[in-house]
Design brief:
about 230 residues, alpha+beta, OB fold (Dihydrolipoamide Acetyltransferase, E2P), five-stranded mixed barrel, three-stranded antiparallel β-sheet, 7 helices, 8 strands
Length: about 230
Amino acid sequence: MIWSDYGFLLSKNKFGENSIISEFYTENHGKISGIIYGATSKKIRNYLQIGNKFHINYNSKNENKLGYLKIEIEKILTPLFFEDKKKLSCIVSSMSLVKLLTVENQSNILIYKLVEDFYSFLENINWINKLIFWELELLKLIGYDLELKNIVKEEIVDSKKLYFVLGNSEKKYIPNFLVEKDYDVVDFNQIFNGLKLVSDYLDKSILRPNNISHPKSRIDFLNLIKE
């Protein structure tokens, strides 16, 4: 099997002395993995950063065996944020979610476009807010649509509208901006609570039922933005 495609690097792991096993999310083939020989050479390793976009040539003699990849950098993206620890951590966390939640060799152009759009909001002052909606869209595309407006109840406290859900006989309050889909809210406490809500949903609905641990990169990201 031989083909060419474009894709974003999701992960890389050392394989032997000079090679790596890498995973990409591609435009026409979905998530794919393969061996890149000579990946530790200076020519390749400098741009082989998680999140960068590549042109990929794939070659495999057998569908059941790991293929070989030849890559060329298409767009340098991640190095633009090397001096911003929070955004760099966000990139690694987000790519790890795509890796974790998608199926090998199953194309989905909407997920590819979502990954492609990821960098469009990182320069925005409200980038963490927009990240949350990006994550919710990713969950929706894999079949886990958290449509909060359909499950929350409302109450008025001190003239303020609050949203909540009932679980195990206790109320769990939901940040207003998630229900009302306010993409411009900047209150950090609300935003952080929104991130935690997505994490809780991810754990309860997807990870724990499949005996999967919460991605360390996402935990690291949440800890970093609290600082």
